[in-house]
Amino acid sequence: MKALKKLFDNIHPYVEEGGKFHAFRSLVDGFETFAFVPNTTSRAGSVNIHDAIDSKRIMSLVVIALLPALLFGMYNVGYQNALAAGQLGNATFWGMFLYGALAVLPKIIVSYAVGLGIEFVVAQWKNEEIQEGFLVSGILIPMIVPVTCPLWILAIAVAFSVILAKEIFGGTGMNIFNPALITRAFLFFSYPSAMTGDATVWVSQDTIFGTGFAAPEACTAATPLGQAVTEGFAGFDCATIQNAITGLIPGCIGETSVIAIALGAILLLWTGVASWKIMLSVFVGGAATGYLMQAAGLTAIQWYEHLVLGGFAFGAVFMATDPVTSSRTECGKYIYGLLIGFIAVMVRVLNPGYPEGMMLAILLMNLFAPLIDYCFVQKNISMRAKRAIKK
Amino acid sequence: MASVIKLRKGLDINLKGKATKETASISCPGEYALVPDDFCGLKPKVVVKEGDAVKVGDALFVDKLHPEVKFVSPVSGTVSLVERGERRKLMSIRVQADGKQEARQFDVKGDVKSLLLESGLFGFFRQRPYDVVANPEDAPKAIFVSAFNSMPLSQDFEYVLAGQEADFQAGITALSKLAKVYLGISVKQTNAALTAAKDCEVNVFDGPAPAGNVGVQINHVSPVNKGEVVWTLGAEEVIFVGRLMNNGKVDFTRTIALAGSEVSAPKYYKMLVGQKLTTLIEGNAKVEGSRIINGNVMTGVKTTQDGFLAAHATEVNVIPEGDHADEMLGWIMPRFNTFSTHRSYFSWLFGKKKEYVMDARVKGGERHMIMSGEYDKVFPMDIYAGYLVKAIITGDIDRQEALGIYEVAPEDFAIAEFVDSSKLELQRIVREGLDILRKENA
C-alpha cells in the first residue's frame, strides 16, 4: 500500500504540466483516484466536511447490481448453445458457463477498451478528471446485444455513442440520451441483420476454443417475444413464462432472467441509486397498457407476459432509471416511468415491424424528460410569481 | 404557544466533540481585529489611522456607499495596524487592547435605527435578497431571528441565553420598532424568554438541519418575493442590541462553543468579537494536522490559530484536516467508520446516536450533476435546488429570479453540499451567483 502510494508520488512529476509524459495525466489520475480516495480537502468558502459518497462508488454499485444478470447471461449463452445443438444432456453447468463466458468476455473487453479509451483522451484534452459514467455503460452495452454480434460492429457502435451521445454534450451528467441505448439503437438501425429479424442471431451456434457445441444446421431460435408477436402467439405455454422468469430463453445476453435482474433491482433500490418511482411506474405503465390492449382484443399476450419477456424488465431496472437522462423532478419521475411502460407495450403490440419496444420507448422518453420537468418546474415558478403579485 | 411548523427534509449530522454546557473564561490579551470580509457585500472605508486611540463603540471603518453604517471597535485601545492585501484591499484593522474596556456612552432615547447605525450594531444585520449587510435606506417587511442553530457542533443558544433573558427581550423590543419581528425557535427549546417572547411573532420549528437556518424559516413563514426585503439578525446579536438598550454601551461578548473531535474538552468560552484565537486554541485543541474553522463546520471558513474570531461566528470548530489519510480503494471498501447518507456505506446500521469523526477531505472528484433529487431531500424550501444551482452556473438571471434565488443564502445549501455525490461547491456557486445578481440589479 505504502509502496503503491510512493509509486504514484514518483510518477506525478512526469505527468504534470510540462512533464515528459504529460499526455498520460488523465490515465495516471484515473488509476490513482481508484487506488486511493483523493486527499484534497475542501476549499475556503465551501462546506468543510463531506459525505463519503462519490460518483465512483455509485457507478461501481450499479456495476455490482448488473453482475447477477451478467453471470446468468453467460450461463444462458452456453445453455442456448447446447440446446440448439441438441446436446443438453451432454453439457455440464461449468462447461456451459465457460462457453458463455468466452463468448461474452471479448464483448466486455471491446466495449471497455473503446469507450474508456475515448474517455481518457477526452479527459486529457479537456484537462478534467476521468468521469466514471462509462463504467456502467461499458458493461451495459455487451448485455443488450445478441451474443453473435461481431466485435468490430460493437466497437464502431460504442465509439459512435460515446462521442456523439455523450462527449459532445459535455460528458457524464450532460448527455440527453442513455449512451448504452444509443449504442443499441445504432446497431439496430445500421446493422439490422446482426441485431434482429434473422432468428439465428440470438444463439451462438459454434464452438469457442473447443468449448460448446456446433449446431448441426443453421437452426432457428427466435426469442419468445419475437415468436409471440410474429407468429400470432401459438404454442406459448406456462413453461415459456417460467423459462422467461428464470431466463433460459434466447435473447440479448443480460436481459433474459427476471430473477437475476430482480437481484440487481433490490440492490439499486435499497441503496437509493435507482429511483423506485421510475422503476415502479414503468412496470405499472407496461402492465396497464398490456391489460388494455388485451382487453381491446389487439393482442393475445397476457399483460404480465409483457413484463417478463424481452428487454422490459432489464430496461425498467437499469436503463429507465439512469439519473442523468431520466426526469429530475420527483413528480415527473412517475409520468416518465408510466409513459415508458405505455410506449414500450404500444410498440410491441401495434408495430408489426419489430417485436421489441423497450429501447425505443426509453430513448423517446429520454427526449421528453426535460419537457416533463419543465412542466413541474414551471408550476413552481408560476406559484412564486403569483405569490409576488398577491403579497 | 405558537403553532409548530414541521419540516421533514434535512439531515442531522452527528459529529464527535459537542460542547458540554460549561463556560470557561479565557484571558483577553493584546490584539483584536475586525475583518471587513466577515461582512458580506461591503466596500469598507477606514476612518482611523494607525496609532489612534479608540474606545469600545468607536468606528473603525464604514461602508463607502452608506457611510452611516459603521463598524466599531470591540475593545478600547490603540489602532495598531491597518492591514492591506493585494491591490490595497483592506484585510483587517487591528486594535491593541489596553484592557480597560472604556466604552463610549450612547443615548438610547432617540430613534432606534440611528442608534443602531451609530453604535455599529446595524452592521450585523443582513438582508435577503443577496445575504449581504442590510441597506439602511430599505424598509424591510420583517426582521427574522432564528434562536437555534441545527448544524452539527453548533452553539446551543438556549444555554447561551441563560442569564441574559432581559437583554434578549430588550433587543427584540428594539427591533420591533423597525419592522415586524419573527422569532424562530426549536421545538426542543423551553426557556420562557423564547417561547413567550414579547413584541414578536414566535414560530416553532421541528425538523432536522437546516431547520435552524433563518432562510428556511423565512421561506415557511413569509417568503421573500421579488422587490421585497427582509432583514435577519443572529440571536446572540439580538442580545448585543439588548445590552446597548439597557446599558447604553456596546458589548460584543459572545459565548462561543469550542467544539469538534480535535478539541480536548469541548465547552463554551466567553470571547469578544474579533478576539485572537490563539488563547482559545492553545492547550485546548490539537493544532498539528487539524483544521480550525472560524464559525460552524458547515459554513465557516478555515483559519489558523493566529486568526481572529469572525464577526458572525458563534462557534469555533476544530476537525482533522485529513490530507494525509491515503485511504485505499474507497469505491469498494465497506469503510465502517465513515458517515454517509448513502446506503452503500453502513452508517445506517449504527443508528443516529453514533458520533463520527469527519475530516475535511472532499472524498471524491468534482463531476457534473449526475444524481437527481439529492439536494431536494435536504432542502426544506419550496425551491428546486438543483435547477436553481444550474441556473446560477449557466448565468441565467431571469431563471434564477423565477426559481427563487432571492430567498436563499449560501448557508442554506450547506447540507446539500455535504450530501452531493458530484462534490459541487454549492455555497461558493450560490455566493457568486448572488454577487453577480446584485451587481446586475444595482
Describe this protein's structure.
The complex is a heterodimer of chains A (391) and B (442). Chain A has 391 residues and is mainly α. Chain A has helices at 2-15, 25-35, 55-84, 93-126, 133-143, 151-166, 179-190, 192-195, 224-230, 238-246, 258-271, 276-295, 303-308, 312-319, 330-350, 358-390. Chain A folds into two domains: 2-35, no CATH class; 55-375, Ammonium transporter fold. Chain A contains 16 helices and no strands. In chain A, helix 5 (133-143) packs parallel to helix 7 and helix 12 (276-295) packs parallel to helix 15 (330-350). The radius of gyration of chain A is 23 Å and the shape is globular. Among the domains of chain B are: 4-10 and 28-247, Rossmann fold (3-Layer(aba) Sandwich); 362-441, no CATH class. Chain B has helices at residues 112-119, 157-161, 165-176, 192-195, 214-221, 235-247, 278-281, 385-393, 397-403, 414-419, 426-441; strands at residues 4-6, 20-25, 31-34, 44-46, 53-54, 59-63, 70-72, 77-84, 90-97, 126-128, 132-133, 142-146, 181-186, 201-206, 230-234, 253-259, 267-272, 290-294, 301-303, 315-320. In chain B, the strands form four sheets. Chain B has a seven-stranded mixed beta sheet with strand order 1-14-13-12-15-10-11, sandwiched between helices. A six-stranded mixed beta sheet of chain B has the order 2-17-16-20-18-19, with no helix packed on it. In chain B, strands 3-9-8-5 form a four-stranded antiparallel beta sheet, with no helix packed on it. In chain B, helix 3 (165-176) crosses helix 6 and helix 8 packs antiparallel against helix 9. The mean pLDDT of chain B is 91. The chains are: A mainly alpha (391), B alpha/beta (442). Chains A and B meet through helix 2, helix 3 and helix 16 of A and helix 10 and helix 11 of B.
Strand content of chain A: under 5%
The average pLDDT score of chain A comes to 85
CATH topology of the domain at 4-10 and 28-247 in chain B: Rossmann fold
The percent range for strand residues of chain B is: 15-25%
Separate helix tally of chain A:
16
Termini separation of chain B (Å)?
A: 42 Å
